[in-house]
């Protein structure tokens, strides 16, 4: 069977089971769609967005047309996340094809940019979580080993953005931390696990002291020639990757002391007038013209906020995820389920980057929706109508 149940955190055991429990409960009058609710679930919306995304997949190259190399890694991650929450096995051949075909472009998924490598390492970790196919985990380890070659004593540590060694920035180091933390949770022997934990903690000690996290708790783009905060743009993805990295590291080390920093960054984003509009929807500073890179960023933030929410569930995180998913579906969508760059404006031009980014938000909402349903079912199994929530209407057995 394709689906592997050893997922990133124990609450993910409930994802597929919750859909089955709710389906069974409908027949017994315990769990039914409310009359006033939307006629389509977040899971169904995510499925339609994924179908549209896959029309852009190029079987020959193993990549996605209309977007770039690193964006395709994120699209594979989005696809894997959807497969996990839905329980589908249909995308196994896509992962396998990309694993072989995309290496014709960059063997071993290695190129001149350490951040590109980090995206592919995380994509293959997700594929491993789904399939238990060791080749994916081995590839992630190999990529991480190359990333580690980017570490030196300039600015007292950290890895470079590229192999040209001219810039130390947030995203490359956040990804290095995230990959190390994920591998620390998955390595097969204690020696390997300890090595990855040590790298992750070394990176976090450096990053937390680097000055890239500002007084406003937002992460800026990188360091200048004097190794100080360069005060460049605080992109949404720089806020996101660190959330997922710290959540994963807290699980790998069983150290909840790592989480308050992540929570402070998340709170800073949710209250930022630059990154969030008055309607509560995420906004990238480069909009409406974000090029091929910035169009990917918001989905990365939502994906990692969802990861933090798994570790430390907070109502404001879940409301924010739902608000963004609702806004995308309401205004940033074409009839063929193409999804645009701006999540709070009428649909604009779409490509595989905007599509996978917005799909991240819909997948996140579907996961939260399912986890809420499973929590409700567990809490009310013996007396299912003790307290009805907005997402469920209770009947009698």
Automatic annotation (TrEMBL):
One Pfam family this chain carries?
Glyco_hydro_76
What superkingdom does the record give? Bacteria
Under SUPFAM superfamilies, the record lists: Six-hairpin glycosidases (SSF48208)
Biological process (GO), any one: carbohydrate metabolic process
Coiled-coil annotated spans: none
User: InterPro entries given for it?
Assistant: 6-hairpin_glycosidase_sf (IPR008928), Glyco_hydro_76 (IPR005198), MUG_Protein (IPR053169)
What is the protein name given in its UniProt record?
A: Alpha-1,6-mannanase
Please spell out the taxonomic lineage of the organism that makes this protein: Bacteria, Pseudomonadati, Acidobacteriota, Terriglobia, Terriglobales
């Amino acid at each position: 069977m394709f689906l592997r149940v050893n997922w990133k955190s124990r609450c993910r055991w409930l994802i597929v089971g919750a859909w089955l429990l709710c389906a069974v409960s409908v027949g017994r009058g315990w769990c039914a769609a409310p009359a006033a609710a939307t006629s389509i679930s977040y899971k169904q919306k995510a499925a339609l967005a994924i179908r549209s995304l896959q029309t852009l997949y190029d079987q020959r190259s193993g990549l996605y047309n209309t977007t770039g190399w690193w964006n395709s890694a994120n699209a594979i991650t989005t696809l894997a996340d959807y497969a996990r929450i839905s329980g589908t096995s249909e995308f196994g051949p896509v992962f396998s094809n990309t694993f072989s075909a995309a290496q014709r472009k960059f063997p071993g998924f290695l190129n001149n940019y350490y951040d590109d490598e980090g995206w592919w390492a995380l994509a293959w970790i997700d594929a491993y979580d789904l399939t238990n196919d060791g080749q994916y985990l081995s590839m992630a380890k190999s990529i991480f080993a190359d990333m580690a070659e980017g570490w030196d004593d300039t600015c007292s540590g950290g890895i470079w953005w590229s192999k040209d060694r001219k810039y130390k920035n947030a995203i490359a180091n956040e990804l290095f931390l995230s990959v190390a933390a994920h591998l620390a949770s998955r390595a097969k022997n204690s020696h390997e696990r300890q090595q990855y934990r040590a790298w992750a903690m070394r990176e976090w000690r450096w990053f937390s002291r680097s000055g890239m996290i500002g007084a406003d708790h937002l992460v800026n783009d990188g360091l200048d020639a004097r190794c100080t905060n360069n005060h460049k743009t605080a992109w949404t993805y720089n806020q996101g990757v660190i959330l997922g990295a710290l959540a994963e590291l807290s699980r790998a080390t069983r150290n909840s002391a790592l989480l308050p920093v992540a929570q402070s960054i998340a709170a800073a984003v949710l209250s930022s007038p630059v990154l969030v509009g008055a309607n509560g929807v995420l906004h990238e500073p480069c909009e409406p013209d974000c090029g091929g890179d910035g169009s990917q960023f918001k989905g990365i933030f939502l994906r990692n906020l969802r990861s933090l929410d798994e570790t430390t569930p907070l109502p404001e995180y879940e409301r924010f995820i739902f608000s963004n998913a609702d806004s995308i579906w309401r205004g940033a969508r074409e009839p063929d389920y193409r999804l645009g760059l701006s999540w709070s404006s009428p649909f604009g031009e779409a490509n595989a980057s905007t599509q996978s980014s917005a799909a991240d938000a819909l997948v996140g909402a579907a996961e939260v929706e399912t986890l809420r349903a499973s929590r409700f079912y567990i809490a009310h199994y013996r007396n299912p109508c003790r307290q009805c929530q907005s997402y469920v209407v209770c009947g009698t057995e």
